User: Fold these one by one.
Assistant:
Number 1:
Amino acid sequence: MFRNPRLLLFAFALVAGAVLVVLLASTIGRSPVRPPLPNPNGYDDFIKASEALLWNVDDFPTLDHDSFAALVSTNAEPMRLLRLGLTRQCVMPTDSALTNNYNLLPGMRRLAQLLTAEGRLREMEKRPAEAAQSYVDALRYGNEVSRGGFLINRLLGITCEAIGYAPLAKLAPKLNPDEACAVLRDLDKLDVGRVTWAEVQQSERRFMRYQRGKHFNPIMWVMGWWQIRQAMQRAETKTKTVVARERLLAAELALRCYQSAHGHPPARLDDLVTNYLSHVPQDSFSRQPLVYCAQGTNWLLYSVGSDGVDDGGKPVGRGLASKGDLFFDSP
């Protein structure tokens, strides 16, 4: 069949055209009606906070106590605006961000670093509960700063959450039961109000329609579609990873609180619901409950990780493609 080269070429062109039509049909269409932006909008407070930063906080990990204190006190106004934004409903105004998105990102990231610098100062001053609150605020900020945004905004949010998560995971074992339970309540609330991957996909499709409307070239569009598809797959893995880590940390703290109250760990994660968690924490990779096994006075708790395979508690290595299971303090 198709021994004639012209017929073969025609058939290929026909199939390629059909594929292009299907791809266009999957992305072209009327944008869903977006609800009105909240007023006041917490995102506006985040922008003002980033513009009010007085120091470059990129080098904060190398600072001593006095430098940390100076950094935090000098940026009291940006910190006030940031936390004001966290008390309000927050949605990125995507209409204006379509043409002015990238310029805001560095300042937005520095706000998460500022929160972490505040947490580090509080740790130096032996105030672990307040330090934990600073780190939790960085997680909340990372979630809210990407709400309503595009793929690049969610990647910014993931970065901000990672900035706050690393020191929080190190601090968690040092918290007493009351301090651990306070952090747990915040993490549980964060998980309930988390930005979903479906929201990110919807916003990104809107951005692609905008770009296509400016200048449509079918060949370049197909190439761009393929590139963004790969970028979305990588970003989805990063999103699942940060979600799994935060759920693991919440479950770890809940287990510590339960053990402190009862003298032993629970038989099942279900036993944590109501008193410590609002729901059984799900593994973002398997869509099943996190793997849990009580072991005397201790326990084994992990996510199956990005490969989706339960390796029986074998720790994952570094990198998104590493095989193994993910723990709350995995690298």
Number 2:
Amino acid sequence: MRLQDLRLLPKVRDSWTYLYVEHCKVDQDAKAIAFHDATGKTAVPCAAITTLMLGPGTSITHAAITTLADNGCLVLWSGEGAVRFYAGGMGETRSAKKTLHQARLYANPDTRLKVVFRLYNMRFREDLDTTLTLRQVRGKEGIRVRDTYARMSRESGVAWSGRSYKREDWAKADPVNRALSAANSCLYGVCHAATVSAGYSPGIGFIHTGKMLSFVYDVADLYKTEITIPAAFLAAAEGGENIESRVRRTCRDFFQEQHMLQRIIPDVERALDVTSEEIDTKDIDADAALPGGLWDPLEGIIGGGVNFSAGEVTSGRVDA
């Protein structure tokens, strides 16, 4: 996106506007920030964006970071075209409402299973038979992915003998398997950046578990058959030379064409059944200077930043 086209900024969702920049310098400009590139200077009010994604060739001053943080703008460091996620700063809010909602769904086996089935339903784009067991659903998913590989092999003319590669012996994998791994890595980066920017935890997965990116893998699986698998076979059809870099560029173009950043957050919230009643609870972080609420087994969340020493003290403990 050209810096001059700020009026065309896409929206990740109605309340999440992002800006991706590369090959420029970002510094403070009064109470806003400004981008300097080969075309000149472009000033941007921090209130206009909630997520700033810094791509290759960018540098940013300490003053600019301070201004963005003071205005609640999340800063992400990413790869070209936002296809990798390297690091992130403080977001628009100090609230953990979305993470806590995600954790509540995860912690209850019944609600976790509902999320798992919603994720699978979204992959199939149809309602699954409610009498199916989770093992049966996984079997259907395996057939769907296998058929996608077979179809792309026929369409591209690239031979397919199954998913097989080893990180420690990367060069021995065939070109299409190397392309698939590189493409999936790009997809994980985009999904990671989007979920973090929206306030969800990348480690609290529902289908996947045990990894710091388990939820990223859950989300990324929604898009593999339409993006990374076709991209990998298209790249492999052109030969094996420099296939990793070529498939990354193909993925970057696919992400832009299919408006991935605009799609991911609505899909995540559909999977997590996000409603205003569940998320828009009492805002315990209305004042960012306060430490937040305190959990109580009887009263729920009570106010933080309060000295409870005036309460009754029994057995060396203070009862609020």
Number 3:
Amino acid sequence: MKPNFIWVLTIIVLVVAFASVGFAHEPGYEMTIPQVNVPPRLDGKLDDAAWKAVEPVEWGNINIGGVVKRAQFSKSWAVYDDKFIYVAFENMEPNTDKLTTVHNTHDGDVWMDDENEIFIEPNHVGAWPPGFQIVINAANVTFDQTPAGRGWEPELESATQVYKDRWVLEVKIPFKDLGFDKAPIGATWGWNFCRHIMAGVDIWTEWSTTGEAFHTPNRLGDLTFGMEKTAVHPSGKLTTAWGSIKGVQ
């Protein structure tokens, strides 16, 4: 084996190793989501069987350190089917009468309101591009962009609902607008759930801790598209797709 080839091979191994561990986030920010045969209704109620198919992640990390009080923690769910990924947020908020939703124009400064954000990095190599950011405020006004700018216009569908002690967001994102013809079963993407709290305060919170800026791809968490297919049996019970075929009671 020639010396030059050995050096090249060594460099390739080091690059691959760095790509696999050099962009690692803090432990504990991993989520595996199931496929569903019946998608959730986008109505801000979170009572669909699809959401019961996955354990939500609960979070309240302040981006510059610490956590918010539990009365302002958030939970997030995600499931998928052949064409879409579905995401839900439940944002606990004792002061829903103080929610800020002053930006009412698509692609306006929506991030300055009470809002949720989704960061997506399909290659999960810790660098932009590719990458996608979705921002939706409590009044269901959207903002979306890629590192190249605001020209990205995905065909999102979303709904929000404000309750006495929380507000809820549900959103449907087409895989085709993320560069995929079909669901990337088995893949792991870089992902983050984020929130701006403006009700009486001005705090940025997140699931995976990125530090001061949400736009930090090497600190995104892991979202894995699980192999398991979860179905809704005619009885209304959740089961596996195989169990549904067999007629689980």
Number 4:
Amino acid sequence: MNCPACNSILQECKCGQVLVDICSRCHGVWFDPDELRPFVEFLLKDQPEIPNAKIELWKKVRSPDSSSKPPRSCPVCGVPMKKFNYAYDSNIILDKCPECEGIWTDANDLHRVAVYKKGNPRLDAFGRSLVKDKRLQVLQSLHDIARLFPLSRGRLIFPPKR
């Protein structure tokens, strides 16, 4: 197989339980279907020094179409690959084959995916507190609504589910 970025021959490399294809020239990595997630999980376990993700509360999400790079050909099928934003909002633009569903990552993309996947404990704690606060608000609202309908008036009638 040839590299879709620089046309060099890809070398197979086993990392954990995943066999990936790496370009020795540009350091891009080809993942067959269902290999990216386990590889990133292996990477996070193997390299605990990967930094936490930055907290970006007002991040603008990029469209995959905003990339100026021309479409690359799949090293397996030869079909033009489609660009996509990893996890929809990471702003890490990767290439995916619409036929075989393999994924190409450029050299720096893989590290960025690992950082994104690792997340940030402070942001996770903030998210949990927001969810807890929202649940309390919903419960209070339900309690307030229930007080408007005393049980002595009879039962509330709800429309049937469709």
